[in-house]
Amino acid sequence: MIFLIRLGASILKHVTKLYELKWELRKGEILREDRGAVVVSNHQSSLDILGLFNIWEQADKLTAVAKKELMYAMPFGFAAYLAGVVFIDRKNTKRAYDQLKITSDVMVKQKTKIWLFPEGTRNKDYTSLLPFKKGAFHMAVAAQVPVIPVVFSPYYFINRKEGIFNKGQVIIQCLEPISTKGLGPEDVENLATQVRDAMMAVYKELSKEVTANLPSDYPHTTIG
To answer: What residues form the membrane-spanning segments (predicted)?
Structure first.
């Protein structure tokens, strides 16, 4: 199954060429390490899935968890389904829990990385991150696996309301893993805060970097 997922991602990543987007992965060696982990990243658009396809091979054994609604965001939702993304129905609590339990077992037993978006919904504000939901961190603590924060630089080239979608650059920055060894449920809130603070600092740095050399007439946006 992992092989088929990797094959699907390696094929679907070429959709990037249609959108004239350049993806740059930094500190990819963190993702390449052979271990189970919970990977958390910011969520700005269904385009995030395309970014995942472009770095999937780097992470080797990887699967992603996304809300069911994203599956209907064409064309990325269907492509994500083909690539093995696990979609959960948040309205069906029991089924969502069962799916996450299975996914968590795979993470521990097969040293698979599970990718989640703790903001829970698409963030239209390219100047900040939304508050983090705690599910990803509960999963990491329960399995005693590290959390790997990953930051996508702002999608300054997209504004749906204004009909803006230009070619652009996205930097995907991996941060150092944060251990959960010895942590319990009572530590989850502090863990989520620690991860979000670290990601927010990097997000602001990347924002300055990707917009610093844009042409003066480029329709740069801070709203998605």
So the answer is: 70-88, 136-158
